[in-house]
Amino acid sequence: MKSESEYASEYGYETEPDDDTRRLLLRHMLVARGIDEEARRLQKQGALDLWPSCQGQEAAQVGSALAVGPDPTVVPSYREHAVALLRGVTPEELFSQWAGRTFCGWDPYRLRFFPYTMVLATQTLHAVGYSIGQRLQGREDFVVVYIGDGATSEGDMSEAMNLAAVESASVLFVCQNNGWAISKPAEEQMRTSVAERARGFGIESVRVPGSDPETVFSACSRAAAHIRGERAPYLVEIQVGRIQGHTTSDAQELYRSADDIARTRAADPVTAYAARLSGLGLVDTAWFDAVDAEVRESGERLTKEYVG
Ligand SMILES: Cc1ncc(C[n+]2csc(CCOP(=O)(O)OP(=O)(O)O)c2C)c(N)n1
Ligand SMILES: [Mg+2]
User: What is the DSSP string of 18-78?
Assistant: First the structure.
């Protein structure tokens, strides 16, 4: 069997991001953070019904989405706003669902980004079925499905992993383990890592920290090369921190220690990566100002639309 790096070179994958990709990683992380903040503000003003923040999970989402590129179909859960924006969903399209204006908001066929699902883990079966269907139609690209740690406790996830393994479906499972299912800590939900559980089903897997987008990018690039080379599923478990509560209506300080929340905020992947690329001289003040201006313009547009 070939090594993952052999697959990577055969399929033209970069497993280490170059400098342009590094800037792109940071840019998408900053945009996602800015749009997330705008959504939280609008929800507090009653313009959105609910908002599950992705703050703290930007490195995991942007690193994985950039690594797999634009071709695979992405099947999200409900918190993958950074992936949505990267795939070309506009902030307006993204917010319209959370304002109750539409069931989806974007064109899932054109963007190859499925509608969000609120029913935990159902999307894993949709993803495996879609992948098998694609293969039957002679279309071979793979499917990326996102899932949270808590949702892996649903039977659907076990069925999906087993089906993917026996059918050798080209599916990349990306589990963002933020340590919480609303107020239930992950360590009270499982005795092994999600990555280890996947191996029990016969799926190759890896567990990586989600604090650095480059680590995630490399892991997912290798996973993508493996899936394309072996025509078999793969699971990447990414350990992330949840900076905000479960949604805007959750008061996490009621069940989470102040120390734990402070530690997660201090390890913010967006500020850490911004500092790192600045330190390397890859971005400067003018670069940050341009990204800020773009985010501010979107924010003003959205405020005008929703608040007037
Ligand atoms: C089938 C089902 N059961 C319960 C819920 C209620 N619920 C919504 S989110 C959630 C926790 C999910 O946690 P996790 O999968 O870790 O995702 P996270 O919100 O942390 O990203 C629960 C129990 C649901 N939406 N669907
Ligand atoms: Mg969780």
Answer: -HHHHHHHHHHHHHHHHHHHHHHHHHHTTSSS-----TT-HHHHHHHHHHH-SSSEEE--S
